[in-house]
Each structure stands twice: as C-alpha cells, then as structure tokens.
Fold this sequence. Notes:
The complex is a heterodimer of chains A (191) and B (321). By secondary structure, chain A is mainly alpha-helical. Chain A folds into two domains: 1-86, RNA polymerase sigma factor, region 2, helix turn helix motif (Rna Polymerase Sigma Factor, Chain: A, Orthogonal Bundle); 104-191, Winged helix-like DNA-binding domain superfamily/Winged helix DNA-binding domain (Arc Repressor Mutant, subunit A, Orthogonal Bundle). Helices cover 70% and strands 1% of the residues of chain A. In chain A, helix 2 (16-38) crosses helix 4 (68-87), helix 6 crosses helix 8 and helix 7 packs across helix 8. The longest helix of chain A is centred in the N-terminal third of the chain and has 23 residues, at 16-38. By secondary structure, chain B is an alpha+beta fold. Chain B has a domain at 90-308. Helix content of chain B is 38%, strand content 14%. Chain B has eleven helices and nine strands. An eight-stranded mixed sheet of chain B has the order 3-2-4-5-6-7-9-8, with helices on both faces. Chain B starts with 9 loop residues before the first helix and ends in a 13-residue tail after the last strand. The interface between A and B is large, with 70 and 59 residues. Strand 1 of chain A pairs antiparallel with strand 1 (44-45) of chain B.
Amino acid sequence: MTSDEALMLEFQGGSRAAFEELFARYHKPLLGFFGRRLNNLERAEDLTQETFLAVIRAASRYEPRALVRTYLYGIALKLLAAERRKVLPSGSSGQSPPEPQTSGTPECVLWVRQAIEKLDAADREILMLREFEQLSYSDISELLRIPVNTVRSRLFRSRLALKSYLEPPTRNDRAETPSAGEQYPGKRVIQ
Amino acid sequence: MAYLDGELPTDQATEALTHLEVCLECQTLAADFRRVSQELMAWEVTSPGVGVPSEINAALEERFQREAPKVISPRLEARVMTSRWVWAGALAIVCVAVGLELTLTSRNRNEGRSTAYPNMASIEQYLMPDRNAEITLARSAAPAAISSDAKILVLGRRGYETAIEGKNGFVCIVERSWMSPFNSAEFWNPKTRVPGCFNPAAAGSILPLTFKRTEMVLGGASKAQMIDSIKAGFDNKDLPAPGPGAMCYMMSREGYLSDALGHHVPHLMFYFPLTDKSSWGADLPDSPVTLNPQFQGGPEPITEFVIPVGKWSDGTAAPVM
Lengths: 191, 321
C-alpha cells in the first residue's frame, strides 16, 4: 500500500488519483475529528471539506517533513479553533446544534460523550487525539505545542478520570437516583 | 501507560513488561485503561456522504488547470520513488529490528504504535485476487502432511467460502487484520495475512469467531457493534466455548502478521475458556509459552497460549528468538 506521504507527493505532481486515495483514507477520520468536537454533523462535514480544500490550496508548498496525518490534523485543529471562535459569541442563540449521526449503541455513545465532556478541556483534547485520532505522543506534542512529558502526564490523568466517570454507579448512587439505570445504560452493553 | 500505548523503546518496554508481570496493581490499571479505550470505541461519527464533493472536485480542476504539467516530471518521479524506497526501507528495518528484538508477547506491546490504519480500507485491499495463491498461503500454515488433506477456505466479498473440501477435519484459512484485538492499531491493516490451520476441535469452536467477525466487517458493522454482537453471541450460546484440545498451526513463512511482526516466527496456538496465564506459566522468564492477547475477554472469553516452534511448515529452520 502506498504511503500517505508518497501519495501526497504524487498529488503534488499532478495525480488526481493520489488525492482521491488520500480523501478516501482521511474523510471519515476527519469527519470523526470534527463531529466529536462540535456535535454538529453538518458543520463537521463542512470543516472536513475545508480541510481538504486547504490541502489542495497548499499542495505546492507541502514538504514531507511530517506525516501526512499529522499535517492534516494540524490543519483540522486550526479550523476547529477558528470555528469555536466564531461559534462561542453567538452560542446563546437558544437553538441547540443538531446531534451528530452516530453508529453503535446510542446509549453507549451518550455515556462516553458525557464522560469525556467532564474532562478538563486541555486534557480532553490530548485524550481525544490519542484515543480517536491515534496520534503518537510526539505528534500530539507537536500539534499542541506542549512537551511530550506533559502529553504523557495529562493523558494518564485524563484516563484515570475517565475510568472513574465510566464506572457503573455504586449502590448508594442507585438508591439516591431511581433512574440511574437509565443514566448508565452503556454499562449493560460494553463492559 | 506509555508501555500500553507502544510509546516506549524496546529496552524500556521489556522492563515495563517484566514489572507488569509481577505487579498486580499495574496489571489492574493496565486492564482498566484497556477497557476505557475499548469503551471509547462506541463513539463513532458516520456520514452517508460518499465520493469527493463537487466543491473539492472544482478546486482540483482549478489546481490542475493552473499548474501546467499533468504528468510527474522525471525529477519528481524520482523523488516519489525515492520516498517510497525510503519508506519501504524504513519499514523493512523496523520489521527486522522488531523480529530480532521482540518476543511473542511483543504483539501486545506494539498495539497502538502504528497509526496508519484508523479505518477500514476498501474491501478489495483485503481480498486476494489470486484464489490459488490464497489456497497455497492457507496450506502453508501447517506441514503438508496435515494441510494437504485439510479443508481450505478463501475470503470472498461475502465471507469465507470453501475452496477445497478436506478429509482430515483440519481447516486452513488466511485470516485478516480484524482478527487482531479490537484496540490494536493494526486492526484495519489491509496487508495482514495470517495463515492458520485449525484442528477439528478448533475448527468447530474457534473458527466460528473468525466467521463472525468477518461477516460483521463485510456487513459494515462498527467495532462497537461487533463487540456487542460477539458478547451477545457468547451470552446466548450462539458462539461456542473452545473445544477440548482446540489448537491451530501457524507455521507459514509467507504470512504477514502485522507491520510490527512481519512474518514473525512459526508457532502453535492453544485455546481455552478464559483463564489466568499463570496456569500455563506463560510469559514467565525463560518460559516458551506466551499469552496471545488476541481475545482474552476483549470480548471473546477465550485464552490463547502460543508456543514457538523451530521450523517453518516447509521444514526449514526458523529464526532464533
């Protein structure tokens, strides 16, 4: 299988097929990247598209110094930051963003999302880049411009926190909250 | 934790593994972290959109029209080829280094190191276009005295199909990457080809897992859906427990287990209902037995022990571990 970097160079040289292969490889991962962070599938689609458009526009300047996936997520993080800057001031419009279309068991997804949302924002981003985008510590360090040791320590901290958030409720919790079984349905499905 | 993420250099990973084998607290923490990763897999984002959107097509057209040569210049072609060779060389070096340095337990250690396969590739990349080549590869899992009379299955678009009927109850098959642990970074590696020859007990009790995962992958199921379905399959007894004496030959020198392991070493695998690895002394110093984390409750309640052997199925000597 041709590496992403070789495909990128082929695209730079004029190969449309190389771009289409890169698109096929990264469309879903990038959509997941935006979808999990924005909870708005429509905007996630738009920003995924904008990421590829940025790649096309900057193709002539691409240098294979970093992995293509790191390069792509670098663009995606910048677009995400810009999106958040745009959205935050008008976030009180009263209209909830549409839910992303998710597969798998919806209760599980809700359960995982709620747990992740409880994490500190900086820790959450590191955890998501590692768990969902499967980036290495050094990639995350480079993208977020923080030391590798910080990546390592925050990842450990956020996993510990997430572990506790994903644990089933104690008997006392259930006694205090009659509907707790409905609040933690994911635990019935994924242990 | 860096050990679980495959982020430690080999020497430190070996130290971490040694510690992990004796530290119950760390074992618990490692299991917890693996479980957290597994639970996170439930959160997938999908879109019905297929193909390159028109806006991107338009941008591509504009770019290609603006930048004159549509063919790769000799210089660039040389650059691309050089890049490919650099990558191929690097991969080869990694494979050789890993093959020399790591033991069978390194399969677990390397989970998460590769980041190249976040999603399923096109189905074509997992299929072998030459049916006879797949039959030969499947047979290479075991010595000819066993595989020549074995039933041979090959992977088609709808699942495994019988290519050749057998006479001795053994079944030879080439497994694909989705038989890796669900949290493996190479779960979708389309290059993976793992020839195995299952004895009758394993053909009846372990191969159904291969069929189950394959059927779901080809049906477009997510990992979370697969895990749910497999768990349900064991709960309602649709999926069997390992039969007594279930084992598998994996002695092919032509297989490709993963980017990290390459052809690996010839070995035998033995299957049991979920048990502690200490029952076989697996992974203890100088023990030839290792625990393969392929299943181990994630979610299949099956323990798999591996023992390397000295020869490939064709009788030639295997590399020294």
